[in-house]
Amino acid sequence: MNVVIVGGNIAGLRCAELLSNENINVEVFEKGNKGLYKICAAGYTKEAMNELLLPDYLIERDNKYVIGETRFGLLKIKKRIYMLSRPALHEYQWDVACDAGANVHEKSQVVDIDIKENTIELDDSTRVRYDYLIGADGSNSIVRKKLNLPFDNQLVLQYRVPEVVTKTVQMWFPEPYYYTYTFPHDTYTYIGCGIGKDHKKLKKYLEGRCKELNIDTSDLKLEAFPINLNYSGMKFKNIYLVGDAVGFASRLTGEGISQALTSARLSVSSIFGENEKYETGLSKMVEQMRRESQPYFDTYNKVFK
Ligand SMILES: Cc1cc2nc3c(=O)[nH]c(=O)nc-3n(C[C@H](O)[C@H](O)[C@H](O)COP(=O)(O)OP(=O)(O)OC[C@H]3O[C@@H](n4cnc5c(N)ncnc54)[C@H](O)[C@@H]3O)c2cc1C
């Protein structure tokens, strides 16, 4: 059996590791390089840790809980979040997948897919045949495009501030469907705003939050990246979508790492024919996604308590 994975990041490398552990022949094609920087606040939740236990050295800071503020007042959200560096996590996952036996190729972009012929085409015109194809290629997934599925790409904006601005992880919900966050790492802080298509509005909330925290943003680089929030199925005959490509991230908080890891595990279960595990896990994910796609005031009790 030959499994081809498009995209070697959180979801793709996790699939590669799990499949290779069972001696499946895996080829991962990643258009970037090992240790790449993905725009992300890099908060790794307890749920993510339950999927993939990380060694201590990757944890820049362990935040015991999140302080949130909504129109109902302050909330101490019982959610533990570990702060990581995405490049360091990427290097770690890359090494783990390679050690398990996966062939992980950097600077290899998939430019086309022939679904009838079960082949992908790389940017150097090489064609590779697959028995199973996994689209782990993020919110602008070429695999998803080839399956003619819709996208719902919503932006998150952030600044990387070169100092520790707050002692705790904080989330503010200025209005339904919008949040700002302050994620302190070891020597720096991500301050961001999500999630929506209205760049101007997100920027306004982000600048407002920075002003409240006395942060001068004039020399900081604004980072922006979309998260795909449309879920239209995960398995399409011998093709799977995982991570941001499948669309399970939270509209409420922008969390997507644990969902990337869980969807990776489920797709691998399905490839191994563990249908009950796959179906049960998938319904749980769909339920969680539906809960978290409501505005905060409808759901914060269910989600955070
Ligand atoms: C500003 C921001 C902050 C965030 N903060 C958090 C957070 O704190 N905690 C959290 O849990 N989630 C957060 N997220 C969400 C999280 O980053 C994503 O959900 C997560 O990265 C999804 O992982 P993935 O492996 O599915 O996709 P990605 O990490 O996007 O990886 C996809 C990979 O595919 C590669 N690729 C794409 N196309 C091709 C191609 N054609 N050929 C080869 N390779 C290809 C890309 O180079 C990339 O490496 C945040 C997102 C944003 C935008």
SSE sequence, one letter per element: EHEEHEEEEHEEEEEHEEEEHEEEHHH
Profile the largest sheet.
Answer: 7 strands, mixed
Tell me what portion of residues adopts beta-strand conformation.
25-35%
Radius of gyration: 19 Å
CATH superfamily: FAD/NAD(P)-binding domain
| Total count of domains | 1
Structural class: alpha/beta
What ligands can be seen in this structure? flavin-adenine dinucleotide
Strand arrangement in the largest pleated sheet: 6-5-14-15-16-13-17
Helix content: 25-40%
Q: Give the CATH architecture.
A: 3-Layer(bba) Sandwich
Number of helical elements: 8
Distance between the termini: 44 Å
> What ranges have pLDDT less than 50 throughout 5 or more consecutive residues?
none
CATH topology: FAD/NAD(P)-binding domain
CATH class: Alpha Beta
- Average per-residue pLDDT, rounded, comes to 93
How would you describe what is shown here?
It is a single chain. By secondary structure, the protein is of the alpha/beta class. Helices cover 30% and strands 30% of the residues. The protein has eight helices and 19 strands. It has helices at residues 10-21, 46-51, 86-100, 142-146, 199-212, 257-271, 275-291, 296-304; strands spanning 2-6, 25-29, 43-45, 61-63, 66-70, 73-77, 81-83, 103-105, 110-114, 119-122, 127-129, 132-135, 153-161, 169-175, 178-184, 189-196, 223-228, 235-236, 239-241. A hairpin with a 2-residue loop joins β14 (169-175) and β15. α1 packs parallel to α6 (257-271). It is globular and about 55 Å long.
